[in-house]
Design brief:
By secondary structure, the chain is mainly α. It contains 19 helices and three strands. It has one domain.
Amino acid sequence: MIHAIALALSTAFDMLWEVFWPLALGFILSAIVQTLVSRRTVERALGSDSPRSLALATLFGAASSSCSYAAVAIARSLFRKGASFPAAMVFEFASTNLVFELGLILLILLGWSFVGAEFAGGLLMIIILALLFRWTLKPGMIEEARRQTERGRRGRMQGHAEMDMSITEGPFLRRLFSGRGLTSISHNFWGDVTSIWTDIGLGLLIAGALAAWVPTAFWQSFFLTSHPVLSQVWGPLIGPVISLLSFVCSVGNVPLAAVLWNGGISFGGVIAFVFADLIIIPIIDIYRKYYGGRMALYLLVVSYGAMALAGLAIGLLFQALGFVPSRHPAATLVPSPTLNYTSVLNVIFLVILALLAWRFLRTGGLQMLRMMDAPAEDHNPHGRIDVSPGDAPSHHAHH
């Protein structure tokens, strides 16, 4: 038993070491974008469900935090402030499926084909979702969800959803390298990291345990690998279900996706599994609190349909184009860390993270973290938290 646990932990650490520098780079890039794009700009652009608004919702979502819980909270905040419900949901799905860090980890663990399929499939899923909203979402359901939203039921990361740490005055480079800009980047970076570190850790531990303990023969039987045609359909159908039951969201489900790929799930099944971080059980429960039980069930059904259909379509397309890689162990099953380019880059990014942590701690970062998971009303009566980063950041509301 001790040996089995040690093997699982060792495998999880090997995965973490393999993805550490791309994960850090992705979060830094995301923090930079969040520093330069104002949340109020997003709110003003998403007031309808027109193709333009949905395209902007996709763009702004891709430029935001990858934390699933934060994405859900931000979507509700946008909806309360006047964004259309479809635009808020599109923003939410883009922010967890089209972000830098997800693509970088997919590249390291699974390769270019999966990166291309994730982003192409993510756009396809959003188009399918928008069409399903247009065809099936009734105005009465939206009004019911709005009334429920105004009740202010608490979920997770609500304070984070109300924070705006963007720097909008002045030329691009001056904003980026100013003292306020560097502070904002450090706050955005550590805010994102602390919001999903449990999901990443849980994902690595589950992936390590499954890789170490579950025999390949079980996965091959479960994913119908002896029936190539059936497996192409079964993978996208069962992938989101596995994700729903795993409780792992955000980029934390990518190591588990690599284990499933090693086990024999289809290419489209991997993509559908990665898409499904927004229908895990805790998030469905938050939907119930935010929008009511009827809308929560509706979001579960249409989200699952869009994920499965997009995963199936992109899997078949990449298969026809010859882009699906041949079966081989993914990069999660690598030997223990050695002195190579991965180790060198990891050390470099550890130094960068230490500098960001120093800036973060010197400029009120811990105060910001305490605000992240609390309702905005706990901090000011006007509902919005503005973080003006600097050597002594202030937190104030817009009237």
